[in-house]
Write a structure and sequence with these properties.
Two copies of one chain form a homodimer.
Chain A (H helix, E strand, L loop, with lengths): L6 E3 L5 H9 L7 H17 L1 H11 L11 E2 L1 H9 L3 H19 L6 E4 L5 E8 L2 E5 L8 H14 L3 E5 L9 H10 L3 E3 L3 H10 L9 E3 L4 H10 L4 E2 L7 E6 L5 H12 L6 E6 L2 H14 L6 H11 L1 E4 L3 H11 L3 E5 L3 H4 L8 E4 L5 H6 L25 E8 L2 H17 L3 H8 L5
Helix pairs in contact in A: 2-3, 2-8, 2-9, 3-8, 4-7, 5-6, 5-7, 6-7, 8-9, 10-11, 10-12, 16-17
Chain lengths: 434, 434
């Protein structure tokens, strides 16, 4: 049973419009969701724990009376890790160790320099005090996501990482708890939705107020994060996941088909695109897709994704392929080519670049080391993978010597008077030497 | 004529609540503004230049027919710079040079490392392609703001910096244009408001689409920036400006009074707070304020700001003073003390730290070097001064050797199967050696 994936030619007259249509994505802003989230956030802000308990009982089919029933302790996390089958525990710890080692390279240090007159300038870099990590419940609860969000915070030096994860019907995901233990999470509350986001943003008697909230969630969670932004920091609001595979035609087409599947299996809105200068190779991959699809557990999702948002693009040249890369600014870019290094200087926009035939995106999703939280929907044009730098912040340092202040005072005074800010000018002028 | 500034004791039983009330600030989200901005953004998105011209004529009392009439060229910018009085031009160029020198220290480089089995991991750092810089028109048009926003982008390597500045009634601010010349701005359109933000975010036939929009603006501009976030990056939405001065009592009280004025003169909502362990010194500063206020050009604004949001706080100890600093997480922190270095390790949250009696905030606002775009309203808990890093972004690099992919494949396969993502698992397994 074959599957119909659209084919495009990069030389077609309407290729630009085709790409715009293919890539267009806007999350629907539903006023119903907006209102529901506003009500929940306001209730938690004014009534604290009481509201959190109410919403948790209602939305997660729970029946608790106190916040203590909604908190797990470190022993429970450690027990989850200890209780895993050895193969899984080893894999989780190996992944955590690699992710940690990679992120150690991202830690930034304070710096300063001293000018000739003794004036000191620089930046002091400090970790955030306390971070909230949202982990979705149910089927979308990914232990790898716990590692990828918590480890950079831990490496940054964040003292307290507060995780929230809803447990609909009371069901705990042991792998998620094990990942929390492996990643150094400080506290875990089994709450979710907009109520969990509001509790983290404003604090309750039980849930401590955090400085930043990270982690994926459904439309209620995303809407709540947008709403509390400003009171706390947030990470990017992610769109559907996407991959762009660029292949020179010499990789096993089954490998490429499976790489596309690995993106498409996330959900129907996920986007998998293959670009090649070799038209025959596109045919081969299409044949592999047709043959392999019926063997996949999530074939319905994969089919919907590939038919709805997938594409096989024949590029007329390497330059065309590069233009497509930079037009898409893909979350994941797989350069399945003979000499990926030679492509690299011309790749301006991508969340993560998987270089060479061996580097399947799936390796990066779990354990290569780099973060799997990446900018989606073309936002790689202006944003970066989640990293240690997202859990550090900077304070400018300025310490003027008497001589330095005198010289700077003259410049500042002139400019301040040009802006009609005379208190600024006079404050600077006090520091000018007679 | 004396002025009434509130006095607080850090040991008071209700000090926490007092601080919460003093610091509370929320920007009002007005549904009228929201609707007006939505309409403008949609019109510009669908009708492009035509809508931009319409809104500009309507809101800025202009009468133009083509976009060409709304663009300035490089010669006009250079002429503005050349035409300044020598003192002003020298001050502007001196400030630009210092800001540039400081920001050169912030540029980040790509990095990579190779593991024993040949696997390469790293991050590629690239500048954004094109950035939009919003500059308010009329009285709030600050040339220093042009330098502070454009120079970090320029240092980052951004190829095209597109500035927009409304010119109500056709009036051009020569200092602003001169600053654009000094800062390396590429193109200038004399448009403003939500229509300018929309044009930058989505592009029109004339205005190129940018990747990020920075710069201050009124409530329409701020609302529009929030709305287009996602399509483009944006900087922080700033609240009112604030300063916290901590003084050991040995600085000239006139200097401290003027430093407080320099913040208060921005607008009625600006916040200036003085903390000292010396109650007598608070009295001396109050006396200086009473004496100096009548000599200030903007005394009405200063009075409203100090009476409405200012405070003189008597701290019982240095530890108390430090707790107040970290509670406020001030945009500007002036440590007007004998040994500011000894305070630094305990200061966890501040946008910029002005150390020592000579380092007036005004020096940093204009020409010390560090950026004057700083996190307000306590957001220094999780965010940083505007910097070169805001105009660079990162792409993760992963290049697995055959051996590396084989080992990683085993770990990824185990974890993927734990998450029921079997396409991920099989994609990884293809790379495992037999």
């Amino acid at each position: 049973m074959s599957i119909t994936i659209r084919r495009f030619e990069s030389t077609a007259a309407d290729f630009d419009q085709t790409m715009n249509a293919l890539l267009s994505w806007e999350s629907v802003s539903d006023t119903g969701v907006q209102q529901a989230v506003t009500d929940i956030v306001n209730a938690v802000r004014s009534r604290g724990d009481e509201a959190v308990i109410e919403f948790t009982n209602r939305f997660d089919r729970m029946n608790v009376e106190t916040m203590a029933q909604l908190e797990l302790n470190q022993e429970q996390l450690q027990a989850a890790l200890d209780g895993l089958p050895e193969l899984q525990r080893d894999a989780l710890l190996a992944a955590a160790a690699r992710v940690r080692a990679y992120h150690e390279h991202q830690r930034q240090d304070s710096w300063r320099y001293t000018e000739a007159d003794g004036t000191v300038l620089g930046q002091k870099v400090t970790p955030l005090d306390r971070v909230g990590l949202y982990v979705p419940g149910g089927k979308a609860a990914y232990p790898s996501s716990v590692l990828m969000n918590a480890i950079p915070a831990h490496v940054a030096g964040v003292q307290e990482i507060v995780m929230v994860v809803p447990t609909p019907g009371g069901e705990l995901n042991q792998l998620v708890l094990a990942a929390a233990a492996a990643a150094g999470v400080s506290r875990v509350f089994t709450i979710g939705g907009a109520q969990a986001v509001a509790a983290l943003a404003y604090g309750t008697a039980t849930v401590p107020r955090v400085d930043k909230i990270v982690g994926p969630g459904n439309i209620y969670v995303a809407t709540a994060k947008r709403m509390v932004f400003g009171a706390v920091g947030i990470d990017m609001i992610a769109g559907p996941s996407e991959i762009l595979v660029v292949c020179d035609g010499a990789t096993n087409p089954d490998w490429i088909a499976m790489d596309l599947f690995s993106q498409a299996e996330h959900d129907e809105d996920a986007q998998a695109i293959l670009v090649s200068t070799e038209a025959d190779f596109l045919d081969e991959v299409q044949a592999s897709i047709n043959r392999l699809l019926p063997t996949m557990e999530r074939q319905d999702i994969i089919r919907a994704s590939l038919e709805g948002r997938g594409a096989l693009i024949h590029a007329s040249s390497r330059e065309d392929a590069l233009a497509i890369i930079n037009r898409i600014a893909p979350e994941h870019l797989e350069l399945s080519v003979a000499d990926p290094e030679s492509w690299l200087p011309d790749v301006r926009h991508a969340g993560a670049i998987f270089m060479g035939r061996y580097t399947a995106e799936a390796l990066g999703d779990y354990c290569a080391g780099p973060n799997h939280v990446l900018p989606t929907s073309g936002t790689a044009r202006f944003s970066s993978p989640l990293g240690v730098y997202d859990f550090q912040k900077r304070s400018s340092l300025i310490m003027c010597s008497a001589d330095g202040a005198s010289e700077l005072g003259k410049v500042a005074s002139t400019l301040a008077r040009g802006e009609f800010l005379t208190a600024h000018a006079r404050s600077a002028e006090y520091r000018i030497k007679d």
